[in-house]
Design a protein that fits this description.
With 113 residues, the protein is an alpha/beta fold. Helix content is 41%, strand content 28%. Strand 2 and strand 3 form a beta hairpin.
Length: 113
């Protein structure tokens, strides 16, 4: 059985730490690693069109860099995925369920919310 690790990332500093941890864990366990970047809706429009935090190009470049770092560290089984989300936590859990992830790695900012 292959272990699956889902690492939810964004462009915050604590996310860099989470990504490095997930890469190291995947390498040690010979696991599949899925980087997931949920693009949160920031402004609902009265006309029904959502406005999202990041452009598709920005997300793609960020995920490409995560992929390069994982491969440089020796993790061969890496996927990068994104989706637009109104609820980021629900997006992460749904993606973990989809991939039957054994571990979910996220960063913590240390700020109470």
């Amino acid at each position: 059985m292959v272990i699956q690790i889902l690492c939810a990332i964004d462009d915050a500093p604590h996310s860099e730490t989470a990504a490095e941890f997930a890469i190291d864990l995947a390498r040690q366990l010979s696991a599949r690693l899925i980087f997931h970047m949920a693009n949160p809706a920031v402004l609902p429009s009265p006309r029904g069109t959502q406005v999202y935090l990041w452009s598709d190009d920005y997300i793609r470049s960020y995920l490409d860099e995560a992929l390069r770092r994982a491969r440089r560290a020796g993790v061969d089984q890496v996927k990068c995925e994104t989706e637009r989300a109104t609820q980021v936590a629900a997006s992460i859990v749904a993606r973990a369920d989809l991939h039957r992830a054994d571990f979910i790695v996220v960063g913590a900012s240390g700020q109470a919310r």
